[in-house]
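Notebook B, p. 112. Complex prediction, attempt 2.
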Amino acid sequence: MFMLERERIDSTFKKVKAQSANFLTLINLSLGALALLFMINNDLKIGFILIFLAGLFDRFDGMVARKLNIESEFGKQLDSLCDLISFGIAPAFLIYQAVLHQFGVPGMIFTIIFIVCGAIRLARFNITEFTGSFVGVPITVAGCLMAAAYLSINFVPAFFFMFLTIGLSFLMISTISVKKQ
Amino acid sequence: MFMLERERIDSTFKKVKAQSANFLTLINLSLGALALLFMINNDLKIGFILIFLAGLFDRFDGMVARKLNIESEFGKQLDSLCDLISFGIAPAFLIYQAVLHQFGVPGMIFTIIFIVCGAIRLARFNITEFTGSFVGVPITVAGCLMAAAYLSINFVPAFFFMFLTIGLSFLMISTISVKKQ
């Protein structure tokens, strides 16, 4: 009976522990969605800050999952869905709202290409066994570079952002090997 | 030699066939992303139409995959990522831009809850074996209902949309069993 009670407590503790990493992932997702809401209201600076905050939580959830040894298939799936929002859609919309909208339809197409390539990268990542290196630039890296580029909008000609968007898109779906830091 | 050549042609044909369903999924995703771009510019009617067009392609890709017997793990992953955009973020933003923004912070929180619950629903779906019924209302159904509600904004009081958003959110993560049509 004592053993059973102990097992029950252990199992509850394990569940709480397991959810801790997923909780961080959901904060990351919420920050990404909040960034989009601020960007809809043309509040790009707050959107920019929220994307980097999401990036911080993205580092945390993986670290927590590995440290506590609670990596799960559910967590991996949730992480990908979350990455698509925080590092796919949010940075693409930041640069679209800040610069690319000037280009009209081509600006829209390039923004969509970035999101599509991000989704392809994530789907491919989810079905491959991880061996220490990523195939193709991770969407987190591409998304953070895209968001960071926002700081240079006053110093760099607008067409540079078209090249950046399409360049990062292709780097995500390329077969370049990137070692995990 | 003839056999080898035939196998090569067969394999190329299979690859093209396999990509046909994924191509439809990517059109669905592009329509969802385009809907978001139109909604950023406050063009809600076009956003609404694009969400339903995405819904049409979502029916197609599954049908094509099953008919051609080319259901793949990559296709399943891509489909989920795509569903989160076209039936999670896009309808949530449509209703936020149309009505919920009036409620300030609570309106933002409810919009984010819808997206978070959609992501949880998709992550759970991806790790469970499909047995003919869905557990929880699918995000495609919740998203299309949410988008359809846009047609009633002139006839229904604004707070109804707060209830609708939170209600659909919980239906997605509930354990209600929904039979596949």
